[in-house]
């Protein structure tokens, strides 16, 4: 685990461009800022070229997609590919909404992505596995999540993070897990969106997307766990705000003390 | 008062679809999640059919309407009517902006709604009563709010909630009141939007819209009051976050202890 | 310094219309409400006329501009000019994105604005000065910020606020500074957007835009400083929420005690 990427990130303060969803965008911006990146959001295709040039990585989030936004994402995707900037893709609700699954597949055919971050239901849908997803929630399935994650990574030729109580990460060959976390992540809407953007911040400063994905996931999960341990009575509303505080102050040594992964 | 609807809601975890306004959407999503529902937001008309199919109820909020969103709401409204999913309508600022009043009337002619939730000025405007509304605020009027609520419910053939320091609820025949609450609801932008979505969550699991409206209003008002009593120095910013915490943990017994209604 | 404008504002509770960005809009709405104004947001050009008529001042924020929003801003700008309602302009990221700079210049040629509020990089870009801006951040430059602010104010014939650790305010003749504040403003995304909207609230109730700008900037900076002093361990996430609490309760006497300006 390359925990020093966190220090690298804070030193370089990379600009991370997000085509965001409007539900969680404020949390995403503040979390990126807190971890040490510089967030920028854009909705206008006419500024895509400059935005991608300025950014060190890109997040594309399907959470409240519109046809206009899909066109913008295609443009951003093409430009980021050309400029060799890592793209993190967040396929919100593709497990529950076929229109979104088709849109995601269309986007993934238009340009390669470095990393996909979704919940189990979203990753299973992208990989073509049976899963009973439900709205924005992971739902439940009987499949082997290691296999689903690995096969989806192979199929889409990228790193895949299936996040949840245990996070499963694969680049198609290797499989890694992060066991840290807290149920408050599921209770707070937008935890996945925030993780995707933080993964993009790590990918912005580290060439190996598997290591970036693994480390970002551990940092995020462990930071939430630290907060939940310090404030055992915290609820899902205040958790979101305090998590931003914790992201801004968490140190490699804090994470090393509690890190559980393989 | 059917307070057990709260337990029913938590057991069923219904998907509530929102055509939301972009000012308060994050609070709405987190509050829905906290009370025990599964929020999903959508801006794209092409996914309306799948979204309505997946949802158990729908909220349409005029807070930052666009012509595109109105077209989406018409589609969602027609589909929800067809599928017999309850629609909660939140006519933000129709008392102050004639364009919004006309839009609301146009929507209400296009499809029937189960429940309308607004402040006094908004409900008075929909009912055709004199009232001095002001922006997003209720403003002031000399009319009898019981009569305004009841007549508006009769006119629009649905349940109407006029929320405020006292909440007035009518299905055109019966009139109910909820006396719980705290002035912090008015101090925090979006309390009305959140209430509308919580009403939709209750309506998703309970067939009688009057009972669903009455119970949801009591649960919301009493939860805010509990928070204000526990933290008497809390301000309007932190109130919003802690209210989400309280919504996630409030129990029927807590509400029964302080419930004031008729 | 006309600190009594704060009391005037709270007495008059002016409606402030915002063409907002979707990243920080919830903070903006709650902060306006907390300081004593009545926020209203709009995205639809068809309601621009009524919205401007209802409002006492207007904020135009480029943070997540779209071509549709630019058309709306032109309409709002023309109507507000006609009705003599002060316009506050927030040129987010014009120092880093040429498309935004051109859009800002186009808007500023279409209608006069009362006050521009940006960070050093944004103000330098509008004034035509060299500056190394970076995304939404101010970046760094070697220019004299007093001169940049004053010349930009002369060039654009309005009041200019270059906000930062020290805030510099000029109407082209006079130059004022506010030395209060806390680094948490930079750590919390949207502090600038919130300040712009609060400036609009002050301009809504006070005829002299230089005095309104100066006082609003002091009130905002000092309120943040008071919070940071009371809670020295607060992080950037909880800071945003508590700042809303503090804006709702801060009194002229509290500010007078710590005010540092010239």
TrEMBL record, chains A, B, C:
Catalysed transformations (reactions): 5-(2-hydroxyethyl)-4-methylthiazole + ATP = 4-methyl-5-(2-phosphooxyethyl)-thiazole + ADP + H(+)
Record: residues binding substrate: 41, 190
GO molecular function, one term: hydroxyethylthiazole kinase activity
EC number: 2.7.1.50
Enzyme class: transferase
Binding site for ATP: 117, 163
InterPro entries: CARKD (IPR000631), Hyethyz_kinase (IPR000417), Ribokinase-like (IPR029056)
Cofactor dependency: Mg(2+)
All copies of domain YjeF C-terminal, residue ranges: 1-254
PROSITE patterns noted in UniProt: YJEF_C_3 (PS51383)
Keywords linked to the UniProt accession: ATP-binding, Kinase, Magnesium, Metal-binding, Nucleotide-binding, Thiamine biosynthesis, Transferase
Pathway in which the depicted protein is active: Cofactor biosynthesis; thiamine diphosphate biosynthesis; 4-methyl-5-(2-phosphoethyl)-thiazole from 5-(2-hydroxyethyl)-4-methylthiazole: step 1/1
Family the entry assigns: Belongs to the Thz kinase family.
Function: Catalyzes the phosphorylation of the hydroxyl group of 4-methyl-5-beta-hydroxyethylthiazole (THZ).
Entry protein name: Hydroxyethylthiazole kinase
